[in-house]
Amino acid sequence: MTRFAKAHHEGYCPRTAVKSGLDISSGTFNPRIIKNMIPNGTPNKFITSSDITAGRKFQFEINGSNIEIKYHTRSSYAASNFGPSSNSGRTATAQIKVDCKLLNQQVGFQRNPNNGTHIPIKF
Amino acid sequence: MKENLNCILQNIPEGESSDNLKNIFKMFLDENFLLNHNRISLLEFLEELSDKQWHSYNLLDPDLFSELEHWLGNNYSINDSNEVELVLNICVRLGFNNLYLKIISNNEYYNPKTKIIIQEIIDECGYDISDPFESLR
Predict the structure, then answer these.
(1) Inter-chain contact B14–A49, Cβ cutoff 8 Å?
(2) What is chain B's mean pLDDT, rounded?
(3) In this complex, which of B11, B14, B16 lies closest to A46 when CB atoms are compared?
(4) Which of A12, A14, B15, B124 could pair covalently with A65 via S-S, beta carbons 3.0-4.6 A apart?
(5) ipTM associated with this complex
């Protein structure tokens, strides 16, 4: 069974699925691992700016859960305001949202953004 | 009208500057804008907009801070757990500490579902959310 087929299988848990992209030991996220969760034809809604020059944003629904997978290059605003202590200012990051809650580096979900919900990308 | 609000949000770039976001917050506080949308749509819009503000890595413009916190404090129902959750999420993203403390300290008036949400947000954010960027420092 492909991951996409699994995604539509009864009992499939989107939260567990997105966690599979997280490497707990390094606190990094690999978007390629969860790429197959994204239904075919889902548009990339990412709009770049002078601050963030490249990225991807996919919004879709699985088993009644709203999912947003977003990853992008480093933020120059975060870099200039917070320096290397900020994940977003230091490197490219992913933000994964399931039903209004964000995945964090500690493998939990939370309502509000902070440094830990901006998970450094490692392919 | 909700489609219009979604359209505005969908067209804001990732990493939009706080200067440009300031204009959208000003538009939000315009009487005509407020009168043309229902409260839940406005709160949902404001939550998304406050998330954009957080991701600009700058504090909300001081000129807008008090006006927006005042509007927010007068435009939710303590009987609606969804509205209370939206307002608290907005407070955390924008650093509205006074309103945040006011809401979480009135805990005895809320229904059981709202109490659970408030406790989860306290566990996540604590009792001082005046600096939205504390975790980045």
Answers:
(1) yes
(2) 96
(3) B14
(4) A14
(5) 0.92
